[in-house]
Amino acid sequence: MVQTAVQAGVDPMNEPSSIPAGYGAENGEDLSLGLGELDLTTEHLSLAGIEKDVEALADHEVLKAILDQGLDPREYGRRYEDELRQAELASIEDYIAEADTLIALHTDIKECDDILQGVEATLAHFQTDLGSISSEIRALQAESQSMNAKLRDRRALKESLEDFVGRVSLTPDLIHGIVQSDVQSEEFLSALQTLGRKLASAARDPDLQGTVALRDVAPELEKLRIKAVVKSRDFLFAKIWDFRRPRTNVQIKQPVLLRHKSLVAFLGEHAPDIFGEVRAAYIDKVSAKVLDLFRNYWAVIDRLEEKVLTEADTLGAAEAPSSGGVLSFFQRPAPAPAAAASAGGRADAFSLQDRALVLSHVEGPPLVLHAAEARGARFPYEVLFRSVNKLLMDTAAHEYLFCAEFWGDAGVYAALFAPVLAFVESSLAAALAELHDPIALLLMVRLNRECGLAMARRGNPALDGFYDRINLLLWPRLKVLMDAQLASVKAMPVDPGSTAVPIPAVHLLAERYAALTSALLLLQADLPEEPLESNTERLRYAVMNALLSLSRLLPSKRAGTVFLILNFGHIVGVLRGTAARGLPRTGSLSQQAMSQAASGGGQGGAGANPALHRTSSSHGAVDASQGLGASGAALLKEIEEGLHRCTSIYVDDMLGGALPELIAFVRRGEALASGLPEGQALPGCGPPEAAPLAQAFAGSWKQKAEAMCREVTQDFGSTHAARGVLQAVFTQLLMQYSRFLELMKKQGPAGLGVVRDAVTLPSVMYGLNALSR
């Protein structure tokens, strides 16, 4: 149809494009597509002005290519217009072919629109229903809150009423429990607690006071209170009076009371006067019971005490014969069998021995005194003191804890135990006035300190202040005894007209002093500030002076020197031996070692028994004097210096008598050699004068050494001092001979000739070593 229009000379672009009339009418269909702007058939196109555009675009490459082909642009344009019309017709055919599909799509869209309108209506209905439900929910919430508030109010009212009724009502169970049940039953104790709460509410609750209900039950409540007070009082008094029965163990009875401490709490709150009466009765009865216990214990202590030292037993006391005809240490009655069995030497009473073992048993059980008395046992006072302290610690700690829990007041314990502590302090003060043993007192000081530390470890303040008061009793008495020992030494008769001439041996004063001082220094070494330092120093000075005075009474200077060496050596040996052992750490001082200290020291000597110089394995290789403390180390040093001076005097005297020419030659030669050059002969001390001396020494040194050995043995016997002095003599002999040879070596060939002919120094050393063994 388009081609026909073109052939007819009609411009299709200028004609309306439409479907021929009647097309499809036979089917009764409306073929109008309603394409709107997409309908190309209805568009009127105009080519006016195209020539101007072509001229303007003459230089365009595409247009230039068309023109280069030699075609007429108009012809070329018409060709393209034909192609466009053909494309338009093809597109129209496509639209017509899809017309049914578009109609079906239009129908579906209308149906969907209807469905969506129905859904919209349903949702609107739902929205209306939800609004109605929300209003109903809000109404229900408001009603629920109102009901909850009413329920809370009713519950609060119910609780208040129940509490009020519970505080003012007296139930049959409560009345029966107070009136009918036994005091020891659980029913009574439970009823008593309930009654206590009701009484407390009636007395202190302002909401309850003044109410009609309380006025109605107040008389009955008071009757129940009185009944409970009477029954509680009678029960507690009965239990307290049981404490006074003979052979009653208070600590066994107290747990029964502890199970009924609610009775005391009830009386304390609702019957203060009765509470005070019961409290006073408990303090009176238990205090008397505990006081009787300690009185009986102390009475047996007086019978079991072993008198180690009496008032007459001092360092300066004279040795007197006993009734048995043997020398007694002190002028006192014969010791008890136990004491006599433990004695092993003349100074045993002043020595520590195994008495320090008591320090390792501070927490041990107290002595069962009646059993000890039955078997005839006797104990030094420090052992009895420890036993009393242990009994006091256990009793006081138990009573303090019981009073704090049962009475709720530590004042009950203080009132109860005050008479007991006063008795112990007064009894101890009286006993100390009769005690003359400084070692026992210092052991008691340490025991008192250890007991205080033991109570501190328990965290129990029951005996706070008590141990300080005991210290104030012990230290002054110890000072008095030390002053008495010092006075006895100063009062010793040391003039020829008042005492017998001593013999060169260890004096009783040195034995006693060594034993006592070593014990005191060891026991005070780790105490704060070493409180006996001044006392021990004054005592040392007095003893040294006394020994010097005694040495002057001997017939010769050498005998006096021997006397001092023996005594100083004994003191040094005992001090070093005691320091090496130290105090017991695990409950055992070596009794054998202590016996060696007494017996070996009793023999005297510059170094005393060798065992005393060996430290125990627990101390290692340390200075033995450190075990005596700073003051003990200083004291030991002073005595050792005195021993060294006396030994030097003895050695010089012996060598001066055995080798006077050799020693005089050496001294004179050394004095001359100090001003002359080496290699020059010394006038009067040259090789000619030295040769006879060297020859004489070579022929006689062995005999003289043996003679000196016999002389030392004669002076010192078989004591350890003999070996120490002999070694000092031989050492000095070797030094003098060595100096003699050195003088000769410095005087040229002649002097060297004398040295070659003389006996060699190693030969002399070997011979002296053989004699020393």
Automatic annotation (TrEMBL):
It is found in: Golgi apparatus, trans-Golgi network. Residues 585-623 are annotated as: Disordered. Its main location: Golgi. Residues 291-581 form the Vps52 C-terminal domain. One of its GO terms (cellular component) is cytosol. GO terms for biological process: endocytic recycling; Golgi to vacuole transport; protein transport; retrograde transport, endosome to Golgi. Residues 94-267 form the Vps52 coiled-coil domain. InterPro entries: Vps52, Vps52_C, Vps52_CC. Keywords: Golgi apparatus, Protein transport, Transport. Residues 587-598 have a biased composition (Low complexity). The keyword Protein transport applies. It holds the Pfam family Vps52_C. GO terms for molecular function: syntaxin binding. PANTHER family: SUPPRESSOR OF ACTIN MUTATIONS 2/VACUOLAR PROTEIN SORTING 52, VACUOLAR PROTEIN SORTING-ASSOCIATED PROTEIN 52 HOMOLOG. Belongs to the VPS52 family. This is Vacuolar protein sorting-associated protein 52-like protein.
